[in-house]
Amino acid sequence: MTPPSFSLVFNLDPGVTWAASLDRCAAWSGIPRLTTPEDDRTGTVVYLGDRLPPRAAVRRELYFLAACSLPPNDDEGDWAEEAANIARVDAVLLVSASERDKLVAAGSPPGKLHVVGAPLQVLTDPGPAAVRRVRRRVCFIGQLRPIKNPALEVEVVRALRSHGYDCVHIGWLDRDWRDRLERAGAQIVTESRREAYLEAVAHCGFYVATSFSESLCLSALEAVALGCVPVVPDHSGFRDWCPARYRYTALTARAAVERLLALDATGETGPEATALDRYHPHRFFDRIDALARGPLP
Predict the structure, then answer these.
(1) What CA–CA distance (Å, rounded) separates 241 from 120?
(2) What is the pLDDT of residues 8-30, one digit of tens each?
(3) Which domain, by its residues, includes 270?
């Protein structure tokens, strides 16, 4: 058996959504995964690239940084460790321009930084069958860590309920935030099966995010791919893919709700399908292949 022409090493937190998505998309794209028990503990994932033309075997280390631990994410990781990795590896793969800008401002060498986006598995999943979309049903998705601004989500839910919208939070919550959201009028849906999760999202007409910052926001991309109209903050990774008319500038319940009401009144149906084309798994891994072929700084 001819050995692969290169290997790609991704350093990921195995507990985050990105790790699972990257794994699924790599398998779907036919890229083998090699890990050891030690790799699984440290979050290091090695993918062998065998899609390139034959050449002398070489190993390049590419560091996939889904979200750097610089403010406002400084309580969610270890920037010193990330900076050491950036200095060591051949190239750093980032999901958005905003992440690149933060790293450049922190002193990382621009030539090492490559915005490659992320693989969006939902673009290859079979769509939910016969799901009836409810226009005035609004979904919020994910775990409510501090960076997600859960207090604002509670305010937005309360305000939307006063306008007659149904609100649902899809994802696991601790008891405190679950109670607060339910008191505000939200339904809580915890789906462990991916098919059920996709159906729950596809049932909704709108998706709302309230985060202080997002490297890209995988849940928002999935919701849009499933037909939801996005209402998201005008900052960070949202600007890479979400048109301005779906973004609200002030992080207040009033701004978010007014944006949603305006979109609903004009019958908006969401961004063009082509807005997500660059996140197709094949295109994501093709970009990585191109990096492995060409010269790196």
Answers:
(1) 13
(2) 555 544 444 565 666 666 666 66
(3) 125-276
